[in-house]
Amino acid sequence: MKVLIIGGTRYLGREIMMRLAERGDEVTLLNRGRTECALPDNVDCLTADIMDPDLLVEALEGDDGRVRTFDTCVHMIAMDGARAERVIEAVWGLIGHYVQCGSTGVFMPLQRCPADESEPVAPPPPDMGGFGSKAESDQVARELCAQYDLPLTILRPTNIMGPGDVPIDLLGGRDAEFFQGILDGEPIIIPNHGDGLLQPGDVRDLADAFVLAVDQPDKAGEYNISSPYAITHNYYAQLLADAMDVEAQGRHVPVDEIIEEYAGTDRFSVRGIRFFAEHMCFTIEKARRELGYEPQYTAEASVEQTVRWMFDNNVIMRD
Ligand SMILES: NC(=O)c1ccc[n+]([C@@H]2O[C@H](COP(=O)([O-])OP(=O)(O)OC[C@H]3O[C@@H](n4cnc5c(N)ncnc54)[C@H](OP(=O)(O)O)[C@@H]3O)[C@@H](O)[C@H]2O)c1
């Protein structure tokens, strides 16, 4: 397969790139060239900022002036409608299938648990912001792909966990110091009573889902992808402490008090804690049934291996 990945040098995009390259696909990345990443020999890299339509089109032209073509474009950074539009307008005539990375955040706050792909998408409450622009990028992709008769797959990960990045902390950020605090024996701040639900999707499983989607343009559609079940915030705190081999000491604090305590500190966002305090619980049955997606990592394994990655990479350190 000839695959163009927009992004592709960090975390989930990087995992997808590695899988496709390892099996011998012709992979081309397009990004600004700012994020450092060692690329396999068989991966080509084009440089452009997707916000600059002229540079984008120029980058996609081959050295001999002939335009490149691809079986599939995987767009990892459709953060809003403008980004989705710029990329689709530049690639639609060059590709046979467009795969966009969405987010289950567009469904927040949930009405049903577990939620499926038919969960309503409503504008998020102002203090949960952010996901409105992801919903907009989905809508732009639907409209443009319909107009250009291009098969569209939107894959929506839940919160991404797994080796390669700091996991979500219990204040809704990705703050290494939060995890160092747990290791140092500080109480773990847990929103409300700790019975909120978190459903981490392991980055390796999510990358597998993208490869399955790339291989099956005939199964184009919209899919939620994650691990098989959600865990409570209390259990997440326990799993983190177990993985660090420390005694778990939870301190339950109502979200509004957390906001009062942390608002204005640079490692905290109101949006992050509001999002984290929502239930995150999705069924992945559609992806299983249609794409053959079968996650290999439970939430427990994913937490344990992410903590190990933080130790191995000196993100957190014992005295
Ligand atoms: N984090 C989560 O828990 C979560 C949950 C659900 C969904 N998601 C979705 O996952 C996706 C993120 O994927 P990711 O892990 O691959 O990480 P990412 O950090 O979004 O990837 C950034 C990649 O895009 C490139 N890039 C950034 N801005 C660019 C621009 N203006 N023009 C061209 N290239 C640009 C970067 O390279 P350069 O810097 O070199 O340009 C890099 O390759 C997003 O769509 C997000 O909404 C995330």
Q: Pick out the low-confidence regions.
A: none
CATH superfamily of the largest domain: NAD(P)-binding Rossmann-like Domain
User: What would CATH call the architecture of the largest domain?
Assistant: 3-Layer(aba) Sandwich
Number of domains: 2
In words, what does this structure look like?
The chain has 319 residues and is α/β, with parallel strands linked by helices. Helices cover 37% and strands 17% of the residues. It has eleven helices and 13 strands. It has helices at 11-22, 53-60, 81-91, 131-147, 176-183, 203-215, 233-244, 255-262, 270-277, 285-291, 299-312, and strands at 2-6, 26-31, 43-47, 70-75, 95-101, 152-157, 160-161, 188-191, 197-198, 201-202, 222-225, 231-232, 250-253. The protein has a seven-stranded parallel sheet with strand order 3-2-1-4-5-6-11, with helices on both faces. Helix 4 (131-147) links the parallel strand 5 and strand 6 (152-157). Helix 1 crosses helix 6 and helix 2 packs parallel to helix 3 (81-91). The radius of gyration is 20 Å and the shape is globular. It starts with a strand and ends in a 7-residue tail after the last helix. Residues 7-13, 31-35, 49-51, 76-78, 101, 103, 134, 157, 159-160 line the site of NADP nicotinamide-adenine-dinucleotide phosphate.
